[in-house]
Write a structure and sequence with these properties.
The protein has 319 residues and is of the alpha+beta class. It has 3 domains: 63 residues, Alpha-D-Glucose-1,6-Bisphosphate, Chain A, domain 3 (3-Layer(aba) Sandwich), CATH 3.40.120; 124 residues, Alpha-D-Glucose-1,6-Bisphosphate, Chain A, domain 3; 125 residues, 2-Layer Sandwich (TATA-Binding Protein). Helix content is 34%, strand content 27%. The strands form 3 sheets. Strands 8, 9, 10, 11, 12, 13, 14 and 15 form an 8-stranded antiparallel β-sheet that branches. A 4-stranded mixed β-sheet has the order 5-4-6-7.
Amino acid sequence: IVEEQAIPNGDFPTVESPNPEEPAALKMALELAEKVNADIVIGTDPDCDRLGVAVRDLNREMVLLNGNQTMAMMTNFLLKLWKDEGKINGNQFIASTIVSTPMIEVLAKSYDVEYKEGLTGFKWIAKMIKDFPDVDFIGGGEESFGFMVGDFVRDKDAVTSTLLACEIATHAKKNKSSFYKELIQLYIDHGFYKEQLVSIVKKGIEGAEEIKQMMSDARKNPLKAINSSRVLRVEDYQESTSLNLLTNSLTPIDIPKSNVLIYYTEDGTKIALRPSGTEPKIKFYISVNTKLNSVDEIEATEAKLTSKIDVILKEMNLV
């Protein structure tokens, strides 16, 4: 526990922002981790629904995980636990949101567990639990540093998620592994998924109009290719349609309407764009993936994915 942050103070004098999505919020905890040689650092926001996690990499350096990485680890751990206890019988589901990593669906399918997807916000995951009372909810989350363990707390909850993160780290260490090594093993088993969120601020009435125009332009002139990979499908959640660009056919999307567009390309890239519901921003969620053959290739493969994201950002004029 960081002593200077142990006593509640609504002014949050030790940080610029107490949001664990911001790396600076964990600065003091990371400094303490170096002093005591800790394996894991966890920080939550003031209302304890989001959590940020940092773990030691292969070089024993502390690295901050993003919300998608933490969610993938928690999802896989719960799925394996349920499987080992013989509780998976085709009547369970995992849930996430449309702008989160596609890896969660991949993990669910690998355990023959149903995957459900909703709009951003945990109220939609909670609604799934309510709408399907006869199906067991294992867990679920979204990219914005939140996770829900089971159906007891029907919102993102950093209390249970913190305990789960600690359990994952403890289990890994007991088996002569680590949180980070287990994450790499997930990438080897299921593919290396890397995500990046880009937020563009557009303030005022003019900014709101700019965002509206950007979404309108994206609908009228959908991208045909991204980083030389052709776009296969465009999902428009405002129109509740999925357009197959190869056949030019439309299929309905059975999710409530929302101002979101998602592109899927031939090489597995996924790009979602939507205006923020609470801030003067338009957000771009980029996900790329590739095969990872071994631990030895982790740095080179990550560099390759980072370079791919950089190219996409330039193509879309986001840098």
